[in-house]
Design brief:
rod-shaped; mainly alpha; 166 residues; single chain
Length: 166
């Protein structure tokens, strides 16, 4: 340390101090202001980015809430549609059952009417055949009866007697 004090020169010290002051002034004018401005700009950019991130976070929360609400509405609407579809299905089944029952009753009535008509036609046909057979039998009997002249006269007089009685 003693050698340092012996080698100390005031002129050199002043010169170095002046150069240091000039260097500080030059640094202040040309380097520190741009560096400080750049740091201020960077700080402003970071603050803006943080604000934007905060806004984006709020928007995401709003979107998530909106999505949840839309999902809930969609679920509610889906449930309503399913309920309506079930009701329509039930109604359609009931309508089909009712229609089928009415149709079967109608077919039964038509079948009964057809059976009744056929029955009447069969009875009429049977009566016609019986009448035809009766006439044929009566004709044969009358021929035998009328083949004899005495019997014919008897028949005519009995018919005339019945005609005046009526």
């Amino acid at each position: 340390m003693e050698t340092l004090l012996n080698d100390f020169s005031v002129g050199l010290f002043v010169m170095q101090a002046v150069i240091l002051l000039i260097l500080i002034l030059l640094m202040r004018k040309f380097a520190w202001k741009p560096i400080l401005n750049a740091l201020d700009e960077r700080e402003t950019g970071i603050e803006d980015a943080l604000k934007s991130a905060e806004n984006a976070k709020r928007e995401m929360e709003n979107l998530q809430a909106s999505n949840q609400k839309l999902l809930q509405e969609a679920r509610t609407e889906r449930e309503a549609m399913l309920k309506e579809a079930r009701e329509i299905k039930t109604k359609m089944i009931e309508d089909a059952k009712t229609e089928a029952k009415e149709e079967s009753e109608k077919l039964m009535q038509q079948a009964q009417a057809s059976i009744e008509t056929e029955k009447k036609a069969a009875i009429a046909d049977l009566k016609s055949q019986v009448a035809s057979l009766s006439i044929d039998i009566a004709e044969k009997v009358v021929r035998q009866e009328l083949s004899n002249k005495d019997k014919q006269e008897q028949l005519v007089s009995s018919l005339l007697g019945e005609a005046t009685l009526n």
